[in-house]
Amino acid sequence: MPWGTEMGLPLKNSEYLERVKSFQSSSEKYMESHLHGQWKKNRNMFKLIHENQALMTDPRYRHRSKLYIPKARNAVMRKLAAFLSTYFSNPEVVSLKPRRKRDPVMAQAAALLHSCMNYRLKNTMNFFLNTLFAWLDIMQYGRGAVCMGWDYQEETTKRKETLPLKDEDGIPEDIIEQTVETVKVLKDEPTLRHVPLWNLFLAPTADPIDPVNSSPCLVERIPVFTYDAVKKFKGSEWNAPKDVDLEEKGKLDEFLEGYAWKPSSIEDEIYGEDKDGFTKNALWQQIEVWKCFVNVDGEDVYFLSLRGEHMLTEPERVEDKWPCRGRPYILGGIMPDSGLVYWPSFLEVVEGLQRELNAIRNQRRDNVTLALNKKLLVRRNTGIDTNSLLYSRPGAPILGDDIGEMAVRELRYEDVTSSSYKEQQINEQAFEEATGITPYNMGTQRPGMNPTATGVSILTEEANTVNAMELRIVNETFMVPLLRMHAQFEQAFESEEIMRYVADEEGIDFDSVWTDEAIEGEYHIEVDAGIGATSRELRLRNLGMMLDRAMALNTQYGAPVMNLIQFARDAMPLAGFENPDKYVNENVLNMVMSKFGQVAGMNLMDPTQGPARLISPANSGGSQVESMQGYGGDKQIYR
C-alpha cells in the first residue's frame, strides 16, 4: 500500500520519511558536537594512542620518551574479566520463574522455557561475543547497545508429479499432472546483533531510564552490501524505486550509488585517509539503510528506508511485529546520569589520571636518560671532533686541538627518580579510588600493603563493593532486560521441533506443559549477581559456609530442608568444572529423596509440593538419619 493512512496509521509514508530524516539530522549534529570528540579520546586511550599523536611523531620529539602506560586499559579488561566470570562461569546464574509459582504446569513450562533459552544462548545467538562487544562499548563510550530479532527463512520448491486417475472401481483410466509445492525451512532462530553507538540515533531529551522506547523516533544506520541489496530488490523483499527498471543492466547499481555508505566522523580512523575509495570499491561497496521507528500519538511504527528518502518496506506497527512490548533494542550503561541519555564512560572518569601517569613516567624516563647521558658544553674553535663525542664507545679516542679542562664540560642534572616515584604512588592511589581495583584484586604487591590475612580480606571486600555496584547497574540496565526480551521471543517464535527436543532432553512432557496458558503466561527473570559475585574465591567461601549450615539444618530435622545438590551445582563451575550435572549420581539421589519422602510423609521428587512440616528430632523418638540405614547405605550419603 502506498499510504500509511490506508493501513490505519496516523501519517502517510512521505510524512514518515520526512519526520525520520529531520530527526536523524538533528540527532547526528548533537552527537558530533557533544559526544564524538570525547568518544575519540576514549577510544585512543583504550588503544594506547597519545592524544597529541601528531606532536609525538614530530622530529623534535625523536629522542624523547613516548611511553603509554596501559593503566586504564588494564582496568577495563580486569572489570570485563570479572563481569564475564560472573555471568558465564555458572550456567545457573540465570533463573526463570512463573508468576504463579505454585502452579505445577507453569513451573514445568518455566523449566522448559529456561532450557530453550539456554540452548539458544549457547548454540545459535553468538551471545558471548555480542555481549562482550556491548560491554566494551559501555566501558569506552558509556553506553552499549544490542538488537534482538528472529531470523526466519524458507525456500519453496515446485515439482510436477504424475498421478493415475482411477474410475469408481479403482481401475486407472487416465494420467494427470499436478504441481506440488514443498516448503523447506532454512533458518528459524533468534538473533542478537551488536549495534555501534554512533549508528544509533536517539532524542537527547529522552528518559534516561528507558531512552529506547521514550524517544519519539529511533533510527539505526545499517551498512548493507550492494549485492545483498540487489538480491532483496529483485526478490521483491524491498520496494523497488518506481523510476528504475530492475531488468535494465546497471540501472539499479547507478541508483544505489546515490546511497553509498558514509562513515561518521568517529569512524575515520577505521577506514583511514582513503575512506571514500575504501567504501566505494566495487568488491565491498555498501549502501546506507535506516531502520526507523516513529511514534505518533502513541502509535509506534517501524519501516526500513534508504537514508530517509526511499521507503524499502511498508510501515508496520511495532506491537504487531515484535513480542517484546516495545522496540527490540537494549541500551545498557555503568555510570548512570539522571539527566542524560548518553552516560559518561569509565575511561572518561580516569582520563586525567591516565594523562598524568603518562606524563610522570615519560618525564622520569627523560630525566634518567639525561642523568646517564649528560649534555656537553663544547667551547668554539677548540677543534673537538663532535661526532666522536655524540657517538662515543668504550675505548674510542676523541681528537681535539684544545683539550683543556674548560674546553668540554658536562651539564649537571638532578636525578628526580625518588620524587617521581612518590608522585606516581599518589597517582596510583587516586586511580584505585576511582576504579575500585587495588593490588589485592590484581594479585600484586607494593610497599606499605597490609600483608596479613585480615588486612587483605578487609581491603579486598571494600574494593569488591565498588565492582559489585557496577555489576548491579549493568545487570539492571542490560542483562536482565536482554534476557527478559529473549524469553518473550522464545515464547512467541520458538519452533515446536526445538521445544520438543529440549523437553525430551529435560524429561518434560511437552504436550501437557506447553499449553496456550504457558505460551501467554508471564515469567520473571532473576540473575544471581549480587555482592561478591565478581570474586570467585569469595563466592566459593560463602557457598562453603552456607553448605555447612545447610548440612547441619538437614541433620537437625532429618529431612532435606536445604537443597544440597544445588549448592554443588553452583560451586563446581567456580572450581573449574563446567558441567556439574555429570558428577551427580541420579540413582542414589532419587533413592535418598524417596527415603526422605517416606519419612516426612510427602513426595519430595515433586518440586511443586509445598514445604514439608518439619518434625523435631526430640519429638520423633530419635534422629531421622538413623532410620535411613534400612536401605543399606551410608547414613550421611545425602550430604
Describe this structure in words.
With 639 residues, the protein is of the alpha+beta class. It has 24 helices and 13 strands. The strands form four sheets. Strands 4, 5, 6, 7, 8 and 9 form a six-stranded antiparallel beta sheet that branches. Strands 3-2-10 form a three-stranded antiparallel beta sheet. Strand 2 (143-166) and strand 3 form a beta hairpin. Helix 4 (71-88) runs antiparallel to helix 6. The protein is extended, with a radius of gyration of 34 Å. It starts with 12 loop residues before the first helix and ends in a 39-residue tail after the last helix. Residues 1-6 and 598-639 have low confidence and may be disordered.
What percent of the residues sit in helical stretches (DSSP H or I)? 40-55%
Shape: extended
Largest sheet: 6 strands, antiparallel
Structural class: alpha+beta
